[in-house]
Amino acid sequence: MGQETVCITGAGGFIASWLVKKLLSKGYTVKGAVRNPDDGKYKHLRELEGAKERLQLVKADILDYQSMIEVIRGCDGVFHMACLLTDDPEQVLEPAIKGTANVLDACAEWGVKRLVMTSSIGAVYMDPNRDPHLVVDENCWSDLDYCIQTKNWYCYAKTVAENAAWKQAEERNLDMVVVNPCLVLGPLLQPSINASTAHIMKYLTGSAKTYANLTQAYVDVRDVAEAHILVYETPSACGRYLCAESNMHRGELVALLAQLFPQYPLPLMCSDQKNPRKQAYKFSNEKMKGLGLSFTPMKKCLADTVASLQNKGFLH
Ligand SMILES: NC(=O)c1ccc[n+]([C@@H]2O[C@H](COP(=O)([O-])OP(=O)(O)OC[C@H]3O[C@@H](n4cnc5c(N)ncnc54)[C@H](OP(=O)(O)O)[C@@H]3O)[C@@H](O)[C@H]2O)c1
């Protein structure tokens, strides 16, 4: 496996950077598809061990089919990760839906051995009619009408894109496996703060004075990168893989952060003083564990995330 050439779309992103690092360390040759290879923001990739010999950053945009055809040519496998985490429909709908379709077409055109697509828990859990006692697993799909009503354009885009990708993969006889991570935290390799890290930054900096009456499932970025490699390298891997370690209320999250880092002005109060505390839904990560992944406990993930933010000078 290690001698293979693989392409990663959006190679400079938070999760993708860890995937590039791990693939290089396993001996893969990596083609990183990025929109502007000359941008200094990819310096961390060029400095990775093995990068000089086996990493090539190629100018490619998932919205430009021809550029996808060119970058995927000669690759054994493809990891499709490029997508912005935003609820701005202008920025997320077309890249998620058309961009994914372009990547699939290019993979099918060259007959790549396997495509691993990074979808999201956002394509899984957004369903107000789901029985609250049901364990959320790979069989669950988000409700598109609910995503539209709540203007959750990111979840809408990921759901439509993944659903269309399954149809397209079947039509084009393409071997595709999907990873559905929940909110990803962990140490940063890239120089800037990504959207999911911003989720905890606001509590650590004191810009959020209260926390919401909401729950969220979390996972460590190193585990998500590992999950992608496991589903790529395991021939029997198929379908979707939920990638989640624990589901916590915001109150539990800030309490854990306060316990680890009492020096930061973490909020003590919930913004909702009227309603009962929201219960976290149960989920299953058994399928992912079945491939051999052991998830990093959230306490360690949070400790490493904050240490990384301190090392990079985002927190003091
Ligand atoms: N982070 C999470 O909590 C989380 C959770 C579940 C699923 N995911 C999924 O995991 C993947 C990676 O997320 P992330 O948080 O690591 O993202 P990120 O750090 O925000 O990086 C996203 C990348 O997508 C690229 N991109 C966006 N539009 C593009 C286009 N039109 N053509 C080519 N590249 C484009 C960007 O590339 P440039 O360098 O060219 O700007 C950027 O490197 C996404 O598919 C996301 O939906 C993330």
UniProtKB/TrEMBL annotation:
Entry EC number(s): 1.2.1.44
Residues covered by the NAD-dependent epimerase/dehydratase domain: 6-237
InterPro entries, per the entry: Epimerase_deHydtase, NAD(P)-bd_dom_sf, NAD(P)_dehydrat-like
Pathway(s) this gene product operates in, as recorded in its UniProt entry: Aromatic compound metabolism; phenylpropanoid biosynthesis
Superkingdom, taxonomy of origin: Eukaryota
GO MF entries: cinnamoyl-CoA reductase activity; oxidoreductase activity, acting on the CH-OH group of donors, NAD or NADP as acceptor
CDD domains registered for this protein in UniProt: FR_SDR_e (cd08958)
UniProt keyword list: Disulfide bond, NADP, Oxidoreductase
Signal peptide segment: none
Family according to the record: Belongs to the NAD(P)-dependent epimerase/dehydratase family. Dihydroflavonol-4-reductase subfamily.
Identification of the protein by name: cinnamoyl-CoA reductase
Species lineage: Eukaryota, Viridiplantae, Streptophyta, Embryophyta, Tracheophyta
Name of the encoding gene: CCR3
